[in-house]
Amino acid sequence: MLFIDYELNPKPTTHVQTQTPHPRHPAVPPPPLPEVTTFMQEIWDRKWLTNSGAFHKELEAQLARYLDVPYVALCANGILDLVIALQVLRVTGEVITTPFSFVATSHALWWNNIRPVFVDIEPESCNLDPEKVESAITPKTTGILSVHVYGHPCKVDRIQEITDIYGLHLIYEGAFPFSRLKKVYLLVEKA
Ligand SMILES: Cc1ncc(COP(=O)(O)O)c(C=O)c1O
């Protein structure tokens, strides 16, 4: 499968980069176009362009093996998976989250009628500061939605401890670190 091989073994490519690479986060160039069009041809040959096509299922299965999890569900985009996770867990009321993320993080809460309660971040990691979480917990708090900003894992052990003590849902948003930090991939950590 193209995606997995490509992520794990990025190859040099003739693609011309149009953005200046960030010194600490160099951009991984996209695969050469013919590699992609080969797969497109197969999709066209099968005449199945919508949900649950062969590549869709294969990618889910390969990702599940790679991440060592029982199930993976592909979504059309990054905000949809958050909306679905919140609905699957039937999260309501208030959720503690970080103000330092793409706006989709708090939008997903808002779209589910959940009030985002912002807690400050750590200056070094830019992640949610777990030591500030407890003082933001109210009787309406039902969960924590934390993000691994720029692919740097947030303090998962401490955050887990707090959710265990207060019986909260815990959701990690892994849009940034995917394929870099295998340990923090799980979007829904605890039901
Ligand atoms: C941290 C984070 N979460 C969620 C999203 C939303 O992803 P999408 O634009 O695919 O809905 C993004 C997109 O950049 C993101 O950076």
The amount of beta strand, in percent, is 5-15%
Classify the secondary structure makeup into a structural class.
alpha/beta
The bound ligands are: pyridoxal-5'-phosphate
- Specify the CATH homologous superfamily of the largest domain: Type I PLP-dependent aspartate aminotransferase-like (Major domain)
Gyration radius, rounded: 19 Å
User: Strands across the major sheet, in which order?
Assistant: 2-1-3-4-5
Sheet with the most strands, sense and barrel status: 5 strands, mixed
Tell me, what is the CATH class of the largest domain? Alpha Beta
Give the CATH topology of the largest domain: Aspartate Aminotransferase, domain 2
Unreliable stretches (pLDDT < 50, length at least 5) are 1-17, 180-191
Helix content: 25-40%
Q: Please tell me what the overall shape is.
A: globular
Helices and strands, in order, run as: HHHHEHEEHEE
Number of discrete helical segments: 6
Count of distinct strands: 5
CATH architecture of the largest domain: 3-Layer(aba) Sandwich
Oligomer: single chain
Would you give an account of this structure?
34% of the residues lie in helices and 12% in strands. The protein contains six helices and five strands. The chain has a five-stranded mixed sheet with strand order 2-1-3-4-5, with helices on both faces. α4 packs across α5. The radius of gyration is 19 Å and the shape is globular. The two termini are 31 Å apart. It binds pyridoxal-5'-phosphate (PLP). The site of pyridoxal-5'-phosphate (PLP) has 11 residues, from α4 and α5.
